[in-house]
Amino acid sequence: MRKRTRTSWHLAARSTLPRTVRDRFLVEIDDGIELSELNRLFSAWLEVVYHRRVHTETGQTPLERFDAAGAPPLPTPALLREAFLWSVERTVTKTATVSLHANRYEVDAALVARKVELVFDPFDLTRIEVRYQHRPFGLAVPLQIGRYTHPQAARELPPPPTPTGIDYLKLLAEKRDAEQGGQRIDYSSLTQPDGDGDGDGGGR
User: Could you tell me the strand order of the sheet in which 97-100 lies?
Assistant: First the structure.
């Protein structure tokens, strides 16, 4: 007989789920069900019942309402790039320059003594966009570059090695077994107190 454990959703999740889910789905569920089975049954109920049943307020099924809205708009490449840029605020010096992590840049002279926003890719500090009061003021001109990436930017992971198609570890295991004549070392026997450490019980 396999032991079935009580899942953590039983007490906590029931009170936070929508009423429809509680009244029409969870009432059919055994408290001792495992999480993987719960997920499988919920997906089936969601696709076969809930998405196809007319909603009393909208007069449509959830699936019809979703299809009527059309495909959601996809963000443009420019918007995606903007989402991953970092920014900091700096006050422009009297010489129309700003600094960022040991780097120095020249900006529009009209921004002297003003607090501007520097927007940049953390992996490329040679290209800094300047904004003032949410308006673009062009690119900062690099004067001195001592650091090319932001110190808090995580290093990009190298690409994984290309598989050779050869089961290297299996070949090593077969070579090891051949060298030992098919006999494997019984490491547990080495702990036997026979005095010589070879596990044969013969002592010295």
Answer: 97-100, 103-106, 141-144
Task: Compute the C-alpha angle 88/91/97, nearest 5°.
Answer: 100
pLDDT digits (tens, 9 = 90+) for 55-96: 888 899 988 988 888 888 889 999 999 999 999 999 999 999
DSSP SS3 for 181: coil
Percent of the chain with pLDDT strictly greater than 70:
69
Residue 131 lies in a domain: yes
Label residue 125 exposed, middle or buried (CB < 10 Å: 0-12, 13-18, 19+): buried
Question: CA angle at residue 91 from 142 to 89, to 5 degrees?
Answer: 80
Q: Which residue type does 202 have?
A: G
Which residues sit opposite 89 in a β-bridge? 117
Are 85 and 131 in the same domain?
Answer: yes
Domain count, the chain: 2
CA end-to-end span of the chain: 50
Residue 17: pLDDT over 50: yes
Residue 190 lies in a domain: no
